[in-house]
Amino acid sequence: AMTPRRAWLSGQRAVLLREAAGLVSGELVAVYPPGIAAIYPGEEITPEVVEYLLQVRAAGLHCQGAADPALRTVRVID
Question: Are 28 and 39 in contact (CB under 8 A)?
Fold first, then answer.
């Protein structure tokens, strides 16, 4: 949807993870294991990614990069 730099410099707000589908991510969220980013700044958050992250949260897996370590919310472009 936009370059990571532009997303990083844009205004952002936190939204509930369940409501993030269709919005543009303002942060990188990587799940460990396997250590691969699920979303990047500037990328549109799909319903599939939301479902995956909800499962990650329920399983108690570690996420790196998220402003909310509990993964209740994600940062999106305002």
Answer: yes
User: Residues 24, 45: contact at Cβ < 8 Å?
Assistant: yes
Q: How far apart are CA 5 and CA 31, in angstroms?
A: 22
Distance between CA atoms of residues 78 and 37, nearest Å: 22
Burial class (CB in 10 A: 0-12, 13-18, 19+), 9: exposed
pTM score above 0.85: yes
Rounded-to-integer distance, Cα 13 and Cα 77, Å: 7
DSSP 23-67: SBBSS-EEEETTTEEEE-TTPBPPHHHHHHHHHHHHHT-EEES-S
| pLDDT tens-digit series, residues 6-48 | 999 999 999 999 999 999 999 999 998 888 999 999 999 999 9
